[in-house]
Amino acid sequence: MKEKDATYLNCVHCGKCLPVCPSYSIGLNEFFSPRGRVRLVLTDNADKLPLRASKVAESMSACLLCGRCVKICPNDVKIDELVIDEKIKLNELAGRAFSIDKIALKALKNKRKVLLKSALKIANIPFVEKLAGRYAPQPEGKSFIQNKDLIFIADIAGKNAGGKNIFTAGYFGGCVFNNIYPQISSDTVTSLTKNGIEVFVPKMQGCCGLPFISSGDVESFRELALNNARAFKDKNLDYIVTSCASCSYSINKLYPLYFDANDEGYAEVRQFSEKLLNIWSFFKELEKKGVKIKTGKLKKEIEAVFHIPCHLSNTEGFKPSSASENLIGEAGFIADKITGLKLKPLKYNYCCGNGGMFNITHYDLSREITKRKFEEIKEASPQEILTSCSGCIFSLKDQKGILKKNERLAVSHLINVYAESLKESKE
Amino acid sequence: MGALTAVEYLSNYMDKKLINEFEMLLGKDRVLSETEELLCYSYDATSKDFMPDAVVFPLNAEEISKIVKLCLKYNTPVVGRGSGSGFSGGSLPLKGGVVVSFTKMNRILELDEENMFVTVEPGIINGDLKYYLSEKGYFYPPDPASYEFSTIGGNVAECSGGPAAVKYGVTKDYIAALEVITGEGEIIDTGSKTVKNVSGYNLTQLFTGSEGTLGLFSKITLKILSKPEANSLILVSFDDINNGFNAAISLLKLRNRPSMLEFMDKSSIESVKGYFKSDIIKIDGNFLFIVESDGSREEVDKSIGEYEKILKEFSPIFLFVSGKDEDKKVIMDARKAISPSLRKYGDLKINNDIAVPINKIPGMLSFLEETSRKYDIPIINFGHFGDGNIHVNIMLDKNNAEMVRKGETAKYDILKKTVELGGSLSGEHGIGLEKKEFMKLKYGDYYMNVLKNIKKAFDPQNIINPGKIF
To answer: Are residues B106 and A28, on separate chains, in Cβ contact within 8 Å?
Structure first.
């Protein structure tokens, strides 16, 4: 780590990060708290005490990288980056101590050779015993991207509605929305074309790399980042869009951190990172550019809650301008366009407990956090749960043992509902 | 490392035995004893740290009593800890020993709506309690800046206060009864759910603000109020310090006192000015304050009108009034921006929370300005006008030994002046480790002995948070 990045030196251990940390909330033990992790990193780096790598790793691996502590820290300590750096360091020391799910990761990386479907199966083999009774996401239909680039022409009605400009956007699907829930990808694309956007989906794209970097495997992360950047390069795209909050966290926030100015592909990765927007920011941006975003209507009214993914951040300077935006941030802009969607408030906006690899390595803890999430969901008593992140969808669908069979709730991406509403509207 | 001495060997052996006994009592998952874990319990919000020998998580009074009795047997210090967010070292295990973490004792035991009391376990977070009560139409006023993460137990131990003190008082004004485990492991109950209570010495008040040195709390009964329906804020600034001061004094004389009266002096205005940008408010002048009125909508509007009229008589350079939530947030954000904006002045902060009689505030502020000039170090001040509580932040460069030395001298001068002006060494953070050596500025040997004897009465073996206050 570069000395200038040593933000842990700014930590005054005030304790403000404790109540917002999902991993602390479970055991209320500071060994699993942001402040505790900062102290472990600080002590380890200063060689003050002989710390055991395996024990330090225990604390780091229970971090969900949700970033809630970073948001609340008055002294700008980048705790998520510290944890990642510490994991990389421990990984190098211990020889991949974190990559317990190596096979799954490998399958993700080489997705062109192995379908994720079988990858999930393979990945589960070493854990058959541990996995008994666990929730495993079932792929719903064929992968969105098969073996060629996809181009979707802008809808004519949309063009007219949008005025003179037709924008082109690249779509970054991410593993889950491409392979497991392909409907989310096709609904995203439909929502874009209906608003007069031409969409390009390069087949070369792969995993965003988050599962790798959160396991301390910086090498694979960089490889994937560069691959993705190159997949979208030279296509003359105005924008690149993703509908997965965790992919945008990885690409917008983490990509630039692991490419130095003199690294191969620095410029390409940076450009890709800067160009990518999460779907909600993109719609806001379009409106700013004079595109009138279409409104839709649902055949049947629904009362839903929107779970705000930890990794969904609003663009800088975002100020809510409607009740829905007040409730759920930028996603509220699209919720406003859907007649028949009634959003109900969630009291605390707790984390869903997924945390990507955290859900795999610490399934029991993850479930405890999910349980807490469902307490506030139950209190709101919605008909459906909406969100916009692949990880959140996994954990929110994992309702066995939390909700009774007849109480189970459907979980969708808000873009599914928007696409549905556009179907119903005649214009 | 060389071989262990006999004493070290014996002490290691004793530690292991003690930890074994804790594990038998509480189960392995409620005892921490590995270095990496203990490290995460070695600090609070001060810059000091001390390693504990073990951390335990009790769930009730009986367990705490057994923990204390075990510590007596092994003659090991026992230190209570909530969120470890204190500014005086109250939860630090100065002499090692056992840290008792109250985080798992965080339940609300009873909401007595008829008598208007709430009984809680000490580990509940102040903000969580406030939220719970607010949903039911009630209000627990004490609001230390850390209320979103500090625990009620810690608040009681340090007698925390905050902006609401000007109208509503501080923690001690809301404590009706405490269940306490003394240094002998005995469980005592100190109060009752009555406003009037004269039966023996008032131990409830003695424990409140005792900085965890007399016993460990297991149950806390608090007085609650009805929630005010509305509030509005005014941000006002003055070029002339005396005008600003007199304006603030005039507001305090009103029967409908403000529910908040926070001030920033020239130093903090300068600090925030460059850091915090807003379209609606202007941070400027030499004396600025934020006034709040709460009550029914009608009362608030009437009071705010009255405050505005009075303030305008003192020629403010800027005055902004709002009852809208988004504006109020901007105003409070300006106040909250002070702390992070300080970092540009130095990486070491000596934070003092002195309190002086209100009419001594201008005198204290000009003394602080002089001191800053005399030692050539930034001293940034802000605070709660209504109770004369000034947060004095001496900003230093950690690596500049000469500067740190000057800072320590400045701290001494400031505390000495505080006592001369008839003030208190600590308004709300406590003495703990941070101000121990300054107690003699205010108290003589006889007084200090009385304090020590009081401690002895509850803790004859001196195992409860030893080394604090004196």
So the answer is: yes
Domains and CATH numbers, chain B: 108-226 (3.30.465.10), 230-339 (3.30.70.2190), 346-430 (3.30.70.2740)
Which ipTM did the prediction report? 0.91
pLDDT tens digits for range A53-73: 999 999 999 999 999 999 999
The reply to whether the predicted model has a pTM over 0.95 is no
Contact (Cβ atoms closer than 8 angstroms) between residue A306 and residue A343: yes
The C-alpha angle B420, B426, B432, rounded to 5 degrees, equals 125
Q: What angle do CA A267, A271, A275 make, to 5 degrees?
A: 175
CA distances for B321 relative to B244, B305, B336, angstroms: 17, 10, 18
Q: What is the largest CA-CA distance in chain A?
A: 69
Show residues of chain A in contact with B42, CB under 8 Å. Answer: 39
Is there a contact between B365 and B338 (Cβ–Cβ < 8 Å)? no
Rounded CA gap, A400 and A406, in Å? 11
Of the partner residues A14, A31, A76, the one whose CB lies closest to the CB of residue B40: A31
Contact B42 A39 (CB under 8 A): yes
Q: Check if B348 contacts A (Cβ < 8 Å).
A: no
* pLDDT tens digits, one per residue of B249-304: 999 999 999 999 999 999 899 988 878 888 888 899 999 999 999 999 999 999 99
Chosen for mutation from B39, B42, B325 (greatest number of chain A CBs closer than 10 Å) is: B39
Angle at B318 between CA B316 and CA B322, to 5 degrees: 115
Interchain CB distance below 8 Å, B36 and A55: yes
Give the contacts of A115 (CB within 8 A, at least 6 positions apart): A143, A179
Cα-to-chain-centroid distance, residue A407: 27
Domains in chain A (CATH in brackets) are 3-94 (1.10.1060.10), 150-285 (3.40.50.1860), 294-424 (3.40.50)
Would you state the structure tokens that stand for residue A410, as one six-digit string? 């459907």
| Residue B85 in contact with partner chain A when CB distance is under 8 A | yes
CB pairs under 8 A between A and B: 85
